[in-house]
């Protein structure tokens, strides 16, 4: 059978573990990178590549009107 002292120690230990896990969860949640920011960065880099290739291809072709 479990004694009152053992039950008290177990409750304090499990409560302490739960509090540490809560603090760790909040720390990781606050410091994570947002998925939206990563998508925006990828979209901005792909847009700048498309604009630079589009500008170079349009600059190479010259048209004259008479």
List the helices and strands and how they pair.
Layout: H1 4-31, H2 35-60
Overall 3D shape: rod-shaped
Distance between the termini: 103 Å
Q: Unreliable runs, pLDDT <50, ≥5 residues?
A: none
The percent range for strand residues is under 5%
Number of distinct helices: 2
State the major sheet: none
Give the total of beta strands. 0
Structural class: mainly alpha
Helix content: over 70%
* SSE sequence, one letter per element: HH
- Rg computed from alpha carbons, rounded to a whole number of angstroms: 30 Å
Question: What do the pLDDT scores average to?
Answer: 82
Subcellular location: Endoplasmic reticulum membrane
Region (Disordered): 35-66
Transmembrane segments: 7-28
Protein name: Dolichyl-diphosphooligosaccharide--protein glycosyltransferase subunit 4
Detailed description of the structure:
Pfam families: Ost4. InterPro entries: Oligosaccaryltransferase, OST4, Ost4p_sf. Its main location: endoplasmic reticulum. The protein has 66 residues and is mostly helical. It is rod-shaped. It has a domain of 33 residues. The model has no long low-confidence stretch (mean pLDDT 82). The protein is built from two helices and no strands.
Task: Please supply descriptive tags for the structure shown above.
66 residues, mainly alpha, 2 helices, rod-shaped
